[in-house]
Amino acid sequence: MATSMKKTSDWIFFHEIPSDVTVHIGGASFSLHKFPLVSKCGYIRKIVSNPTDSDPLVIEIHDVPGGPEGFELAAKFCYGINFELSTENISIVRCVSEFLEMTEDYAIGNLVTRSEAYLDEVALKTLAGAVIILQSSVNLLPMAEKVKLITRCIDTIAYIVTKENEFCSSRSADDLVSSSSHLKGIVDWWVEDLIVLRIDIFQRVLLAMISRGFKQNELGPILMLYVEKCLQGLEIHGKNKKKIDSKQEHEKRIVLETIVSLLPRERNTMSVSFLSMLLRAAIYLETTMACKLDLEKRMGLQLGQAVLDDILIPSFHFDGDTMFDVDTIQRVMINYLEYELETKNNQENDMEKVGKLMESYLAEIASDRNLLLSKFMNFAEHIPEQAKVSNDAIYRAIDIYLKNAHSS
């Protein structure tokens, strides 16, 4: 920072004239001259116009957008020193110029006008540019909202992405439930830019896309990749819950609850294995009950596509509870049965497949010493009779329960 401040002093055209104003910004000091500053900077002009006994004048400014870096760019402009506007610095320049009142009221072609022209003519013409500006604008609140930087970036992103909606619509239903590695190949042209966004901004972008006509049932790939990035490092497949930093846990919980609220409502737009992963994470992170019940219902509607691993969800407890979250899977099964009842004419009736899956699950949980007989029997009784080919699987599960786990 000291080197940066020295450079600022070296820029001054009037080397033989001592500085007559010192500006303190966030622990950094700038030795400058009143005239270049007041000629373009309304904020400084108002301060200088008030009489003071201090000589040289000392000004302390708080909450400058971009801090010393932002003020340094504004000072350069006041002294007529050229610097390149870019997508990396335009949000700081736009916000600091607004804060310092560098408008046409004080100089023709002032920094507010220059930065606006760059935004309109260059920076907000591409998706990548809009995303970079959006990311940096998040750190410049509330000024970035005041000058509508965030809103404009979101509108630009939504416009560019939805313009390609025709391409997105040409993808098959199978693509939408593919693995994340396959999805990267499908939406590589825009999704990688968006998944870097903070969750609240990411949500605003997707809602803007939907309002522009982007179909919600085509959001699957981007939601999957966003979850993959944000829930990295969360060990949701082990039997015990490992402690993580409380702040990090809270952030991941917010991410998950937001993603679930954005999931397409239509059945079969997300794979059952992905829904299972979200449900595991929801139980692990102790999200709201509404979030968990939503995922349970979604899984229930697609239970016919599930395999055993999808429903072997750990209970994540240390207190001697069952190894697997039996109550959750029972609710998933009930959701499935209710759906089947409502759509009894459905040609894709897969009751027998679900019955076999539940019998396999029953055999798997039967070896758990902490599983109460009442819970074991209650689960077995919920497996519909029409789904059973024979009673052999149920007897085998009962045999495992009695012999291996509860012989004492």
Automatic annotation (TrEMBL):
SMART domains, sorted: BTB
Organism lineage reads as: Eukaryota, Viridiplantae, Streptophyta, Embryophyta, Tracheophyta
Q: Which family does it belong to?
A: Belongs to the NPH3 family.
Describe which pathway this protein belongs to, using the record's wording. Answer: Protein modification; protein ubiquitination
Check the record and name the InterPro entries matching this protein.
Answer: BTB/POZ_dom, NPH3/RPT2-like, NPH3_dom, SKP1/BTB/POZ_sf
Q: Which UniProt keywords apply?
A: Ubl conjugation pathway
Looking at the record, the residues that make up the BTB domain are 19-87
Name the species this protein comes from: Lactuca virosa
Domain NPH3 positions: 188-408
In Swiss-Prot or TrEMBL terms, this protein is called BTB domain-containing protein
Output the Pfam families linked to this UniProt entry. BTB (PF00651), NPH3 (PF03000)
Which Gene3D superfamilies does the UniProt record give?
Potassium Channel Kv1.1, Chain A
Entry annotated with the keyword Zinc: no
The UniProt record lists the keyword Metal-binding: no
